[in-house]
Amino acid sequence: MTENNPTTPGSTTTDPASAVGKIVKSEAEWRAQLTPFEYKVLREAGTERAFTGEYTDTTSQGVYRCRACGTELFRSDQKFSSHCGWPSFFAPLAEDRVRYIEDDSHFMKRVEVRCAACDSHLGHVFEGEGYDTPTDLRYCINSVSLTLEPKTS
Q1: Structural domain of residue 37, as residue ranges?
Q2: What is its EC number (predicted)?
Q3: Each residue of 72-130: pLDDT tens digit?
Q4: All residues at 6 or more sequence positions from 146 whose CB lies less than 8 Å from its CB, including other chains
Q5: What's the start-to-end Cα distance of the chain, in Å?
Q6: How many domains does the chain have?
Q7: What is the pTM of this model?
Q8: Known active-site residue 140
């Protein structure tokens, strides 16, 4: 697997986890911490069914964190309605919060997005789909991979 920069798919980058700190646990520890469904998505790169996730249509203000480790990943002001069935963001909170891996599974060429701190699967990023966003990127993220910390006044 190759790490990629989403603005220039296919280019190699340095490991972003060095900026946020690496969280390492055994698979037994992850299984004890996460529900079976959370484990399937976050640790085995599963996907929740479209339009079933808790944050698909959420418009609440706040910060989205990795459900596995709590790392801040996205802000609500980076979220947009793509009508794809999963929460969509046009950028991560910072590039050092996520890492990118080429994903050729399911007869598709995609870029997987993982938490840089704990290496949990979040979803995929797509480029050039024509959404009216500042980056022309769509981070298609599983709700079960996130928790929302509501903004306080």
Answers
A1: 23-150
A2: 1.8.4.12
A3: 999 999 999 999 999 999 999 999 999 999 877 766 778 999 999 999 999 999 998 88
A4: 55, 64, 65, 66, 67, 73, 74, 87, 122
A5: 42
A6: 1
A7: 0.83
A8: yes
